[in-house]
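Re: the request from the purification team.
They wanted to know what the chain is likely to look like in 3D before they choose a buffer screen. I agreed to run a prediction and write the result into the notebook, where they can find it.
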Amino acid sequence: MTNKFFSIRKEFSNSKTYKVVNVAGLKLRFKTKNKTNNSYNTVHYMVAMLKAFNIKHIVTSPGRQNSLFNALVQNDDFFKCYSVVDERSAAYVATGIAYETNEPVVITCTGATASRNYLSALTEAYYRKIPIIALTFVDYNANIFNLQPQFVDRSISQNDIKTISVDLPRINDDSDKKRLMLYINATLIEAVNKKSPVHINCPSYFNYDTCKENLPEDIWTTKYYEYNFEHLVSELQNKKMAIFMGAHSKFDKMTEDAISDFTLSYNVPVFCDHTSNYHGKNKILITQFSTMKNKNLRPEIVIDIGSVCGDYNLFRIFTEAKIWRVSEDGSFKSRLNVPVEYLFNCKEIEFFKALLNKDSSVSNYYNEVKNLVSNYKVPELELSNPLVCYELSKRLPKNSSLHLAILNSLRSMNYFKLDESIDVISNVGGFGIDGPLSTLIGQSFTNSQKSYFCVTGDLAFFYDMNILGQRDIGNNLRILVVNNNKGIEFRLNNELEKSLAEDTDKYIAAGGHYKGGLKNWAESCGFEYLYSDSKENLIENLDRFCSVNNEKPIIFEVKTTNKAEQTANKLMLSYNK
């Protein structure tokens, strides 16, 4: 397993060919879509992965669409194959084998209505938690608009016949191969370790000359743990190891203390943004780390927890490290399609306590990262979202809560430290502009004695402004709107700016809406209204905005320009390099 893991990691990380993708001014480097140089296709990788997961029982029914798969497994001594012509019977035969052996069983058939006959047995398997892997095949030339024989639409199926259903891609390039590995790992982990029925829809191939070739070795498999993983502590010692946290619910004290103890025992950093809500030891803002010259300080092992992260610079941390994913619900997740070496289905506190370092020797990794980030300097900025966030970060009251709308406001605040008593939230789950105000107001209802702040752009504000008329809004609400009169994120995109510039504003960045600004709307809803259009009055109004004793909720509009935002964004990305 280890050799296979490293073979694909070496292939992905050592390539000299890259594509540069610009996202909000960030130059992200990814490997280009190079054509693969062998005759292996999706079916070959599917068979290789079944062997890697030690899945050997296959109940097969005759057919053309699954014929290459059948040809590959029938002459491989690893597999124990059974032929059952009637698919309805075949699926029930598989449940019997799985019950007796307590091992996953593959069922496979051709296209057309053959797979429909699996439904009864898969329903049985779902409610009895029997691990059946329904491997169906489809001709990729067929689709719902093409009158081609033997096609049925499998895009939707009953909830209670499987826990996961995936459509495997055809392999045209390395990007497809990465996605293929993720899909197969996620599905087989579910079947093998959670004893659940799953569905894999595989593209058909008919190049039978490949049946005598060895199976591909450039695969990787994720090892699954629920308990008894204390022995892995030896793999963490004296390594450049880091914890990475995506967005996370508030930590209870015991879990946060366990993470802090873990970081101190190994002397390792915790890379996170503000949405992690981590207030423990060895915290390093990922945005600060990512803007520095840090290639030699990229980690060798990353322990990954939490959900989506709004920082697009994750590749600097993830693409050259072994990934250990801690998942309290046991679900398989990856970032940037990077291979996951270990998946831990356990509570975070259990993981960090079990792998606490009791050896006296520790690495110097955190100290090196800390020294690098300590040199982080804030450049001289014009009136812009980064400047607003910088000044606000120094003034937010302790024990308050901050909601950051995506994307510019979230990114801008993540450059700057906040008091550790401040909780931060952002709607990064769906990652849209919907609902930042409504979410914030819902938060503010829960504690009238706590101050709730929001930083949002103008489009996100106006998108959600109807909630401001809600009758229960209290005076503990503070909304700061950075109004650049458009979706400035699109004007920070280098590719759009180079090709379209001002033409982006019309329909892409939606510039020029809501010409009257916020004043009338804010005051009609009972808010105190503040306004700044210069650096000088920004500071004065921020002091007022951050006051906790006020008779009314406050809306603070800060008017910025396209040029100022672009300049500030470039400075924040390049100043410390």
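For the purification team: The chain has three domains: 42-218, 225-373, 385-574.
Please add any questions underneath this entry.
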